[in-house]
Predict the structure.
Amino acid sequence: MEGKQARTPLIAGNWKMHKTVAEAVELVEGLLKADLPAPVEVLVCPPFTALSEVAKIVAGTKIKLGAQNLHWEKQGAYTGEVSPVMLAELGCEYVIIGHSERRQYFGETDEAVNRKVKAALEHGIKPIICVGESLAEREAGVTEELIQRQVRAAIAGLSAAELASIVIAYEPIWAIGTGKTADGPEANRIGRLIRETIAAVDRAAGEVVRILYGGSVKPENFAEFAAQSDIDGALVGGASLKADQFAAIVRVAVV
């Protein structure tokens, strides 16, 4: 595999169900005032209600815009859903798909994740595909099998060009919002497994796909992950809600 120097680090902030429009504007304006290093791609994923206003503020800046979910249909009778056409119109370059909270609380399946990935790519939006195991699954020794299954299902039917444009976020469920984290070498081991799983479908894509770590990422612990050969950034939850903490993580990404 090629070295990670060929892959631009990506630090993505998943705001989840936080921030009113006014609060979102304040947060992103704070980020724009921070000293964000050039060689890092910076992404914010506000709630749907704030996307339009945040889009106006980040237009023409180094901060990119993403959404937290989408529906696979372009339009239709799907009350409460948001389509890829709507997200593309707002300028979303990325969308988070298959987050463990979507899988756990809203019954999102591997099949649904695959349909959403294809819909995002069809409309020029890069999917950040989330995979990860629960504590029970890890203790049962099925982590590797589960991760490979989730990755294979998510990328089923994608072309080589489409594969090269996706992002995979490894988020051990037991580390999300708990204060617990996998250590750097263990996260890298799973990152390498993900990369090899993709490379088995298309070797070139396996080399260029960016793999993020997520799960209680903070400025104090991210250096250990950023230094790993197969970790190319982070999907940040709680720490992305404070401009100074998120900016600090972005700076750590330059290793």
